[in-house]
Amino acid sequence: MEPSCGSRGPGPAAAAVAAVLPAGGSGERLGGATPKQFCTVQGRPLVSYTVGAMERISWISHIIVVVSPENIEKMNSIVEKYGHKRVTIVRGGVTRHRSIFNGLKVFAENNFSNQLLQKPEVVIIHDAVRPFVEEDILSKVVMAAKDHGAAGAIRPLVSTVIASAADGFLDHSLERARYRASEMPQAFLFDIIYEAYQQCTDYDLDYGTECLHLALKYCKTNAKLVEGTADLWKVTYKRDLYAAESIIKGNLSQQVCIITNVKEDVAQVNFLLHESLKSRIKVEAVSVTLSKNDGQLQDIFSGQCYNFVCISDKKYAVEETQKLVDMLEKSNTPLLYPVVLISVHLDVSENTSCSIGMEELTRIKKFAREVKKKNILLYGILFQYKDCLLLQETVNSAAALILALIMDRNPELIGQLLVA
Amino acid sequence: MEPSCGSRGPGPAAAAVAAVLPAGGSGERLGGATPKQFCTVQGRPLVSYTVGAMERISWISHIIVVVSPENIEKMNSIVEKYGHKRVTIVRGGVTRHRSIFNGLKVFAENNFSNQLLQKPEVVIIHDAVRPFVEEDILSKVVMAAKDHGAAGAIRPLVSTVIASAADGFLDHSLERARYRASEMPQAFLFDIIYEAYQQCTDYDLDYGTECLHLALKYCKTNAKLVEGTADLWKVTYKRDLYAAESIIKGNLSQQVCIITNVKEDVAQVNFLLHESLKSRIKVEAVSVTLSKNDGQLQDIFSGQCYNFVCISDKKYAVEETQKLVDMLEKSNTPLLYPVVLISVHLDVSENTSCSIGMEELTRIKKFAREVKKKNILLYGILFQYKDCLLLQETVNSAAALILALIMDRNPELIGQLLVA
Ligand SMILES: [Mg+2]
Ligand SMILES: [Mg+2]
Questions:
Q1: Nearest residue on chain A to B401, judged by CA atoms?
Q2: Quick one: DSSP state of residue A169?
Q3: Is there a contact between A236 and B419 if contact means CB atoms under 8 Å apart?
Q4: How many alpha carbons lie under 13 Å from residue B118 in its C-beta half-sphere?
Q5: Could you report the per-residue pLDDT of A359-417, keeping only the tens digit for each?
Q6: Would you state the pLDDT for residue A300?
Q7: Which B residues in the span 179-208 are in contact with A, Cβ-Cβ below 8 Å?
């Protein structure tokens, strides 16, 4: 969408909306040296998730990420690696408010050489460490800001808030129902929040934290408060990183693509496995022999599917797996996360006392270590297809292994051949 | 320690201290049917972790768990299953304050037939959904309560707190530095908090949340505020369960016990594996042939080690593993969590083109499914010991697999034979 400064249409889509993400924090509370916005979850820095959440929304025309001077280079490489568009990196100040102000100045002082950096009607301010923000709440705060000048997401208080006296004793406790936690995103008519920052004191810039407060104090704008969901929480402590990791692993495990050729003996296993997985996860089936120009697979890559199952009746054959690896590599989609690739080896031999050769196991491990360098986690599953009576049981076992491997995404287990 | 009501010694150890854990909440915020105190982490309900954290502290003479009437039976079975001692289950009221009051009444109205339920000097009040409470903070609030009548743990506010006007607009925001989040544990002189509950109004009992507030309002006792650590957080949302799961898995992965016989060919692998693991985890080595009366192993069980590695040069032999399973079963220690048991099969044959028979793999899987019923997660690692040049590499690979299996505790991967 082109910015259309000044329009007041019915939805956020009709307004020029930009976003400023302060990402200058020092991460002290995590107890580690890495500021929390640069901590990685599934190998990807949190700030990239948050930028991604904003980018997905077509009516946000531009995203300013404000980082401290020492992290500008790091942020540049993140933007490049994850293919972020519509992002400008801005040098932060020594406090959160000074950083946000720097971000806003880019729009106010832009000489219009860059069309995208034209002053927006509404600006969203959102923390880089709140990666799970959804379009719904962004739309709500933007609409409310258009109508009322300022708006912010709120949540119920989890704990009672108390005032302490100077001597470290309880002075009084607040009645919990009357107060709310002020969260992000917030949104403002650009002219209001920029005016507030221009008017405010050095004390405000150095010790304040709340943009809503500045809009009220300097522009007499009482922000509209919008109830947000629990997803808006701020990654603050180490435990929040654990939680983010689990949520993201869960999100990555929503969909699997099954690739198979359609020989008759494979078809039944394919069908049953598909059915078994379908009850617990979205399954995309690609029933073709892989070829380099396969548009269907390319669509699936672009659709952010990070889990692939290759079913092959060529025992331990790495050829088809290699083809998929090549396609992933040649696809223009940046790999935001490690891809899980599970090679299911169908053993249809009648020989009941078969065995697995160590050389083959070693070969699979070696191959897995190679493709790991391409951010692909390769695992093998051996599927013995002999006894028709046990077929459903084996299918269920294979499905459980596939789901476990997808959920865990464990890099230490690559190259292992598991038995269904 | 025997309760010594009325003593005012130098530390909590000299006071009679009891604890009341309100566990009557409905868990609405988790969005699930199970109240959060009964949600399981590694199969064990959160409330059992919290009771366990209290039980470990010798100077807490008794623990009252207050649950809603429909959960009394469930709580009884938890106490039995996890072998909790010094616990009395009390029927809760319809609100948090009414539940706490019910808990306190047990001490006040006790006719002294039960010595342990004698009125304590100090009572701790702690949430059942804050499982990571440490002795340090409990000791601090108890000491402060002895000195000042009331005390409570506090934390800095994560978000700014705002007051909303009736129309849903911002009224004002609080200056973050002047306020704190009131957390748990809290502690009180029993007579003060009991007096407060007796004096307070129905409105307080129905709509209040803060015990510190009651002590101030009805007994003019300004609580001493004690800065707590981030561990004190309350499991409130689903993401908090994810975080708790990661923390507990991390705690369970601190220690591994390696069991081996000391044949010469095994000794070198044992030594190198020990060294490789030691740099990342506490290793207890038991270099004996297992026997049923082995006191050393019994001590390790009691010491809450939940990870065992059996190194054997009998390829795929389940006998030694079976012995350990039997010992775990016969030990009187209740299994609080699933035990991870990794059977490392040393293959010292000179044959370079060896293979693994499918029958053996099937046998290991079947055995693993059997011991799973005993809450033991069994995994196999095949360790090929042929080429001296590659020995260190294989050792490192085995150590990485062992750590991954211990960290993940994945029940879907039991019975698999991984190759180091
Ligand atoms: Mg703010
Ligand atoms: Mg309270």
A1: A412
A2: B
A3: no
A4: 14
A5: 888 899 999 999 999 999 999 999 987 767 788 999 999 999 999 999 999 999 999 99
A6: 76
A7: 179-183, 207
User: Are both A203 and A313 inside the same structural domain?
Assistant: no
Q: What is the ipTM of this complex?
A: 0.90
Q: Do A216 and B180 touch (CB under 8 A)?
A: no
Q: Are A104 and A197 in contact (CB under 8 A)?
A: yes
Q: Is the dihedral of CA B155, B212, B4, B80 positive or negative?
A: negative
The domain boundary, picked from A209, A238, A267, lies at A238
The Cα B383–Cα A369 span in angstroms is 18
DSSP count for chain A of H helices, then E strands = 13, 18
Is there a contact between B169 and A222 if contact means CB atoms under 8 Å apart?
Answer: yes
Under an 8 A CB cutoff, do A230 and B247 touch?
Answer: no
B255 class by beta-carbon count within 10 Å (0-12 exposed, 13-18 middle, 19+ buried):
middle
User: Looking at residue A4, what is its pLDDT?
Assistant: 39
Q: Given A358, A412, A418, which is nearest B354 (Cβ)? A: A358
Tell me: do A343 and A296 sit in the same domain.
Answer: yes
Residue B386 in any domain: the answer is: yes
Quick one: B229 and B344 in the same domain?
no
Domain count of the fold of chain B: 2
Determine the average pLDDT of the residues in A304-321: 81
Q: Scanning every residue of chain B, which has its alpha carbon at the shortest distance from the alpha carbon of A176?
A: B209
Give the residue on B whose Cα is nearest the Cα of A209: B160
Q: Reply yes or no on whether the pLDDT at B164 is more than 60.
A: yes
Residue-wise pLDDT tens digits, B314-329: 766 677 788 888 888 8
Closest residue in B to A401 (Cα–Cα): B412
Segments forming the whole domain that contains residue A265: 253-419
Pairing of strands B224-227, B150-156: parallel
In CATH, what number is assigned to the domain containing residue A189?
Answer: 3.90.550.10
Residue B247 included in any domain: no
Q: What is the mean pLDDT of residues B156-160?
A: 93
Residue A389 domain-assigned (yes or no): yes
Q: Please name the residues between 13 and 32 in chain B that touch chain A, using a CB distance below 8 Å.
A: 29
The verdict on A170 touching B (C-beta cutoff 8 Å) is yes
Same domain membership, residue B325 and residue B226: no
Q: In this structure, what CATH number is given to the domain that contains residue A272? A: 3.40.50.720
Q: What is the residue whose two structure tokens read 């800001």?
A: A145
Put simply, the answer to whether A418 touches B413 (Cβ < 8 Å) is yes
